[in-house]
Amino acid sequence: MKKITAVVPIRKGSQRVVDKNLRPFAGSNLLAIKIENLKRVRGIDEIIVNTDSEHAIEIAQEMGVSFHRREDYYASSKCTGSEFFEHLGLVTDTDIFAYCPVTSPFIKIETMEAAISMFKEENEFDCLSTVSVIKEFMWLDGKAINYNPLNAPNSQNLPDIEALNFGFTLINKSDLIRYRNIIGKTPQFIRTTDIEAIDIDTPLDFFVAEQIYIKTIIEAKNLLG
């Protein structure tokens, strides 16, 4: 049986939203919420918080999950994305690596469990990741890239462009190290709802996500008693 490890990456110094991973969020914090959700996912064998933050390590210990104390270089802006992903693979003892950033607090338990089942059963793809469908009139370098401006379609008829939202990603550890990326050469995508796709990256994202979380998660729990 292959071991599946959920890795929660936490960097101490977030730049756009100060301390967004650990600051108060809807009566808790994003790290605690992520750990709580992952502990409910069937198929995950271990949860590891990969971090340079002592506060994050304290939370991991209090919640009964593992941690890896990240070296300073891999928590710095000098570290490239490829170096970081390769490092995560090298320091994680697992067969299947699940990338689980705290900035996606709305990914459903059933979405993650469906992803795990699909990844275990299929061998035609080397990774599985959640995506959002974008239907926007998109331009790059002064040119339309997904429609003809001289024959513009209705927005609903634009092509379905899938954008990685990084809510939940699975990849074999060996492929993570080989590709130095959580996305392999033959990816499979799971489309999420707009709410699940929310990724907290700016102060506005943080504010909006907290309001939605209070309305959709906390109030629902209160109604259930």
Number of domains: 1
Write the CATH architecture name: Alpha-Beta Complex
Q: In the CATH scheme, what's the topology name?
A: Spore Coat Polysaccharide Biosynthesis Protein SpsA, Chain A
Mean pLDDT: 93
Could you tell me the strand content as a percent range? Answer: 15-25%
Outline the low-pLDDT stretches: none
Taking strands numbered 1, 2, ... along the chain, how are they ordered across the largest sheet? 3-2-1-4-8-5-9
Give the helix level as a range of percent.
25-40%
Question: How far is the N terminus from the C terminus?
Answer: 38 Å
Report Rg: 18 Å
Number of strands: 9
CATH superfamily: Spore Coat Polysaccharide Biosynthesis Protein SpsA, Chain A
CATH class division: Alpha Beta
SSE arrangement, N to C: EHEHEHEHEEEEHEH
Structural class: alpha/beta
Q: Could you say which overall geometry the principal axes of the C-alpha atoms support? A: globular
Main sheet attributes: strand count, strand direction, barrel closure? 7 strands, mixed
Total of helices: 6
